[in-house]
Amino acid sequence: MDRSKYLTVSQLTKYLKLKFDRDPYLQKVYLTGELSNFRLRSGHQYFSLKDDNAVIDAVMFRSQFAKVKFTPEEGMKLCVTGHVSLYERSGRYQIYIDTMEPDGVGSLYLAFEQLKKKLNAEGLFSLPKKPLPLFPKRIAVVTSLNGAVIRDINTTVRRRYPIAQVVLFPTVVQGEKAAADITRQINRANQMGNFDTLIIGRGGGSIEDLWPFNEESVARAIAASKIPVISSVGHETDTTIADLVADRRAATPTAAAELATPQRLDDTLLLLKDFQRRLFNTMRAQIDFDKKQLAKVNQSYIFQQPTRLYENYAQKVDQLTQELQHQEESRLQTAHNAVDQLSNKLLAYAPTRQVKQGQEVVKQLQARLQTAAQSYDQRVNQQVTALTKQLHSLDPLKIMERGYTYVTKEGRVINQARQLAAGDTMLLHFADGNVTVTVTNIKEKNNGNK
User: Fold this and answer.
1) N or C: more exposed end of the chain, with fewer CB within 10 A?
2) Are residues 253 and 157 in the same domain?
3) Which residue in 390, 113, 125 sits closest to 245, CA to CA?
């Protein structure tokens, strides 16, 4: 045996891994599937993606998973990108994930909904709201140092209630470090303990820009604040977790400053107009959103090709129908065979059949008896004929017809010469009659003449 032709398991595995790593189609794979075997770990994440017919192992390293804004859950439908390779130790191929998104909705939106659901279950949204003081002396503002937010708040406070002091707690309002900085400044204002109202806010932006105000740490800092908090984040249509936890929500920084200061008649009228405008914008945004959702639904393959919904089901129904027919035919055939077997058994034990069989047996026995009787008669006749012939052959008359005779004297048969004497009268018997004679001379063979 030439052992040089044989590979070790490690050599074969390395060769297959090289094939995976050099395949350009496997370097950037877009994959969708259902999350399975997922357990949140502190480091790297190991789980599986599956559909109805297959499953693939998946790995997401700590650095990539840290960028995921939502919390994956078992059974969640995901869209991921990554590269496919082979893990040499186990010999199993798996996908190494770079990005992860929920299928159908954005990851940030899903993370927002998950945190919202979690905090709502804990009761953070239903905590008693702290009332705003009517005549604040000091107002703390947590926002960017150079943004328009602090300028609008200062302008409004000086116009409405100039005796109030506005104190800025400068913070980063965008980026990965923003949430920690916002939390730190909220806690700092509470630790100082000499503020009547706290305003947190920033200008408009995308959901990514506003995301620090959706972080759990910021929400818990607001909920734990002893100072009444006014949240003014983004535009009127933007709603953040901070808005839901805060004691009051303002659509704009100007509105936040107005809430924090005493209200005048003209301010009330402006507030009503502001509410009207907000309602109009909210309705318009909702209508636009519903239109987009409707357009998205209309573009779905369910409406474009509705037959695809039931193609597999129709095929499965056909297969099941055929199987059912085959099973029914098989069961009917088995039942027919059983009935035939029972019918044959019943016929075998039926009285008429027994009678017919008995009659056949009687006929056979009669025929055999008749044959035996005829054979017996024939044998008897043959025996009688043979005996008759033997009897005829032994008949004295027949012998006498051949010239033989016998002698009697006084009714006794004479079979020896010494039984007679000269002068005796004897009777000679012939076949056709008798003759009486007288003995004149006797000659014996042994004694000579007499």
Assistant:
1) N
2) yes
3) 125
Nearest-angstrom CA–CA distance, 267 and 258: 8
Residue 286 burial (C-beta neighbours within 10 Å; 0-12, 13-18, 19+): exposed
Do 30 and 135 share a domain, yes or no?
A: no
**How many structural domains are present in the chain?**
3
pLDDT at residue 270, as a whole number: 78
16 and 99 share one domain: yes
Q: In the numeric block, which tokens belong to residue 194?
A: 């000499």
pLDDT at 315 (0 to 100): 66
Q: Tell me if 179 is assigned to some domain.
A: yes
DSSP string, 301-341: HHHHSGGGGTHHHHHHHHHHHHHHHHHHHHHHHHHHHHHHH
Asked if residue 41 is part of any domain, the answer here is yes
Check pLDDT > 70 for residue 293: yes
pLDDT higher than threshold 80 for residue 410: yes
Banded pLDDT at 235 (limits 50, 70, 90)? confident
Distance of CA 360 to the CA centre of its chain: 64
Is the domain of 71 the same as that of 8?
Answer: yes
Q: What is the pLDDT of residue 208?
A: 77
Q: Are strands 248-249 and 197-202 parallel, antiparallel or unpaired?
A: unpaired
pLDDT tens digit sequence for 97-129: 999 888 765 566 777 888 888 888 888 888 899
In a domain, 392, yes or no: no
What whole-number distance in Å separates Cα of residue 275 and Cα of residue 259? 13
Please give the residue range of the domain that contains residue 414. Answer: 401-449
By the 8 A CB rule, do 111 and 71 touch? yes
The token pair at 164 is 């109030």
Reported as a single tens digit per residue, the pLDDT across 84-95 is 998 888 888 999
Location of structure tokens 């998205």: 296
Q: What angle do CA 231, 233, 237 make, to 5 degrees?
A: 110
**Residue 134 shares a structural domain with residue 257:** yes
Task: Give me the residue label for tokens 């936890």.
Answer: 245
Q: Which of 53, 51, 52, 54 is nearest to 79 (CA)?
A: 51
Which of 263, 285, 311 is the last residue in one of the domains?
A: 263
Pair 218, 183: CB distance under 8 Å: yes
- Are residues 32 and 77 in contact, defined by beta-carbon separation less than 8 angstroms? yes
**Residue 415 resides in a domain:** yes
Average pLDDT, the chain: 85
- Do 145 and 54 belong together in one domain? no
Residue 229 clears pLDDT 90, i.e. is over it: yes
Out of 38, 70, 104, pick the residue that ends a domain: 104
Strand partners, 201: 232
> Which CATH number fits the domain that encloses residue 134?
3.40.50.10550
